[in-house]
Design brief:
- The structure holds 2 protein chains of 2 kinds.
- Helix content of chain A is about 75%, strand content about 5%.
- Chain A is an all-alpha fold.
- Chain A has a two-stranded antiparallel sheet with strand order 1-2.
- In chain A, helix 1 packs across helix 6.
- The radius of gyration of chain A is 20 Å and the shape is globular.
- Chain B has a domain of about 210 residues.
- Helix content of chain B is about 75%, strand content about 0%.
- The radius of gyration of chain B is 20 Å and the shape is globular.
- Classes of the chains: A mainly alpha, B mainly alpha.
């Protein structure tokens, strides 16, 4: 057994899990509180990466790119909530699917018009481009930074949701929206903040990954589907659930890609195992979701009061 | 519906069917063979959209994974063809059998859920199909698979040649319209529509709504696989991209443009979609932007789709009389 490979894969899984959490935490709140399906949440992920890349190209400062990018995505998120999402909270889910599908087309094409069809590479400053060696293990320092940032945001979000008044309203909204409205809370403002905050976190995830994968059109459209799986598995409206589910799915996805063929090899010949393993590992997260939906539709960690 | 059209919309639909029936001659006379290609593709998609409308429009089951059945139908032509098996009956039986079985199993699980969860679980199952075909290196994986010859049928019903294939497609589309019309006006359809609006009441009336909905889901899937089988033959090339969730989103879009829960809505919606796609993409490479704006506007402002607007004409005329 190659222990270094295992540790690297565990860290990769953790990284994927944290990115998924950044996407899914906003998604689950928008879903849970406003009852709004936002397929275009992945567009914020893409827009974040492009905003950041543009600022980095102009100023050369990665930190400034992140900061201005966050502000930019927050504004875009707020505009989408204000002009479109707000009008549809009471409409049925089919309308949500259609409108946000339309938004994906709009955002993808706008990015195409503004930044062109080819992707945008985001150069890392030298200070982040190095490697860290622990014993015989060599890790890229930027990947450790992603994990650190992800954990930091998760911690901040925890404090926000559990310790602040805004967080209390958010939790109350996820458990029973009507009651929160009845108590005289300015529900429109709460919705606006939650939506824009969710968009910002998705944008942050896009900015973190873009230096590795580069920013490209439609980069959010695949990962957003897995983020939805995270939301369903964790329980709609539950930030805690999103965190656990993101970690579980991130690790399952990464580890199964590298080890499933070995595992299958125990029960079938090598040639079959090598064919079946990639298919099965790609399906694993969806199988898990189907199982959760079939046997525990409220998710593994539903918000308080939701049955 | 009687033999003589009685309203504005019925006249429009009758005229449309007449034009579709004569289309190959019309386009030959106009010397525009490309239009027949476009229309063939449109009618294939129409079959898929008609099938989706059965569950989405009449049954209220919003599936974001219906493109999976197009893919299954297409690969049921492509994979046998890869082994030089071109027997059309085999392709047909495989498409109907595999899609029916897959729909029975996944539908049995999916229909235990409601609303949002149903949307998500249907999408999850279609992603599974997508990844299965994406990882099958033997059958081209993401490069897709070329089908070198069309499914073989007896001489009198051969698919070879653009015109014969067109009539295959047209007749299957007509049969789908007929099937759905019969279904939704039969007791079966009443139960399906009833459980969309008030499932507990239908259950109180003694109907096992779960079984009805599952049967409906399986019928819809099998019908959709026919579209896939035709698409494989028409395009001569299939790839996992046919199954991606964006394709399923487009199918829903086509149902909505035409107008949900109407017999002709899906046909009109699909034709409108295909014509728009072709027309807009000829004008600008950024046509997706216009599409997106139309979608948003359709939901925010325009209810009922094209069928709804035509029905409004009917109502105006009735008021006039």
């Amino acid at each position: 057994m190659d222990w270094n490979l295992l540790i690297t894969q565990l860290l990769n899984g953790l990284q994927l899990g944290l990115l998924l959490f950044l996407l899914a935490s906003g998604l689950t709140l928008i879903f849970g509180i406003m009852d709004f399906i936002n397929l275009s949440h992945g567009s914020f992920y893409m827009i974040g990466a492009y905003f950041c890349g543009t600022v980095v190209a102009k100023t050369g400062s990665f930190l400034l790119g992140i900061l201005l990018g966050l502000v930019g995505v927050f504004v875009v998120g707020a505009l989408v909530e204000w002009f479109i999402a707000r009008k549809l909270y009471r409409a049925d889910h089919l309308d949500h699917v259609l409108v946000t599908f339309g938004l994906i087309l709009i955002f993808d094409t706008l990015v195409h018009i503004i930044w062109g069809a080819s992707g945008m590479a985001i150069p890392l400053p030298d200070s982040l481009n190095g490697q860290v060696s622990i014993g015989s293990l060599v890790l890229p320092s930027y990947r450790l930074l992603i994990i650190g940032c992800g954990l930091l945001v998760a911690g901040l979000l925890y404090v926000l949701v559990v310790r602040t008044r805004l967080g209390m309203l958010i939790r109350a909204g996820a458990s029973n929206r009507t009651m929160v409205e009845a108590l005289g809370v300015n529900i429109n403002r709460l919705f606006l903040i939650v939506f824009a905050l969710g968009a910002t976190m998705a944008g942050f995830a896009g900015m973190l990954i873009a230096p590795i994968t580069e920013a490209s059109i439609g980069m959010g459209n695949d990962i957003i589907i897995i983020a939805f799986v995270v939301v369903i598995v964790g329980g709609i409206g539950s930030v805690k659930g999103a965190f656990y589910a993101a970690m579980i799915l991130g690790l399952i996805d990464t580890l199964s890609r590298s080890y499933l063929d070995l595992l299958l090899n125990l029960v079938m010949p090598v040639t079959y195992a090598e064919t079946a393993a990639p298919a099965l590992s790609a399906m694993l997260v969806y199988i898990l979701m189907a199982a959760v939906l079939a046997f525990r539709p409220q998710g593994l960690f539903p918000p308080a009061g939701v049955k | 519906m009687g033999m003589v059209p009685r309203s504005v919309s019925a006249w429009c639909y009758a005229a449309l069917l007449a034009v579709l029936a004569l289309a190959p001659f019309l386009f030959e006379w106009m010397e525009q063979p490309f239009y027949l290609d476009l229309l063939s593709r449109g009618l294939i998609l129409a079959i898929a959209v008609i099938s989706l409308n059965l569950i989405l429009g009449y049954g209220g089951m919003v599936s974001l994974g219906h493109a999976a059945y197009i893919g299954i139908g297409a690969y049921c032509v492509g994979i046998p063809a890869y082994y030089d098996l071109y027997n059309g009956w085999l392709h047909l039986a495989l498409a109907l059998g595999v899609s029916g079985l897959f729909a029975l199993v996944t539908g049995a699980v999916s229909l235990r859920t409601k609303g949002v969860y149903f949307i998500m679980i249907t999408m999850a199952f279609s992603q599974m199909v997508y990844f299965i075909f994406l990882s099958l290196e033997e059958y081209g994986a993401d490069d897709g698979l070329v089908i070198y010859a069309r499914s073989e049928f007896p001489e009198w019903m051969s698919m070879d040649g653009a015109t014969s294939l067109y009539y295959w497609i047209f007749i299957l589309m007509l049969l789908s319209l007929f099937l759905i019309n019969r279904l939704v006006h039969a007791r079966f359809g009443r139960v399906i529509v009833g459980s969309k609006f008030n499932e507990p009441r239908m259950q109180a009336l003694g109907f096992d709504t779960y079984r009805y909905r599952l049967a409906c889901y399986v019928i819809s899937a099998m019908l959709c696989s026919l579209a896939g089988m035709l698409l494989g033959n028409f395009a001569g090339f299939i790839s996992p991209d046919m199954i991606s969730w964006a394709r399923s989103g487009e199918l829903i879009f086509m149902v909505i443009i035409g107008g949900v829960a109407s017999i002709f809505g899906p046909l009109i919606g699909t034709l409108a979609f295909v014509v728009l796609e072709e027309g807009l993409s000829a004008i600008t490479v950024y046509w997706h932007l216009i599409f997106g704006i139309m979608l948003v506007a359709l939901v925010l402002f325009g209810k009922g789709g094209i069928h709804g607007w035509l029905s409004m004409l009917d109502r105006k005329r009735v008021e006039h009389d």
